[in-house]
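Hey L., structure's done. Input below.
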Amino acid sequence: MAAKDIRRFLLVGIVLPFLGLELRGDIDPQNMSRDEMVKAAEGLIITNYYVNRWLRAPDIKGQSLDGKDAELIPKPGFVDVHFFLASWCIPCQRLTKKIKSIVAHYAPYNVRFNFIFAHDRAEDAGLFAKAYSIDHGILANAQILKNFHNPPLPTIYMSDKNGWFLSRYVNPSDADLKNFDNLLDKLVTF
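Output:
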């Protein structure tokens, strides 16, 4: 296999699907030099930060939807699910209904679902939470967004019972939600 083919395979076959991204139509990795490919990848905000690294879920300190200080610290023995969304985000609205059914299913288990409103006003996030029966949420501040590398919306992060990041789903499809649900089911049974 030629070096160009290996780069194309790594970029198109592994890196982009892992990050939930696709190539723009004007990018052709088959006819690109290494430097051009790196520049294109940087333009797509591709990062290897989550690839082949075990990362601890960071503490989340922000403001709750009712204006009080809120803190989410990974708790041993609990699976944490962080759902980044915004009231104005149409895919977030579609996904919230599906996430709520998953939340209801795992209510008896040691799973904490955290709704984190990014790039949103408190009033709008509060109305969204009320409309979708979300009883708690946090407004993302600059530090939260920095710790999670300013995730695209919607994004779901899951950490295991020891506080290690296990998965990340960017703009998850129905198939991604099924995988998410299957993984969550395995985590709560062990």
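The chain has two domains: 3-43, 60-189. Strands lie at 60-64, 69-72, 79-85, 111-117, 138-139, 155-159, 165-170.

-- N.
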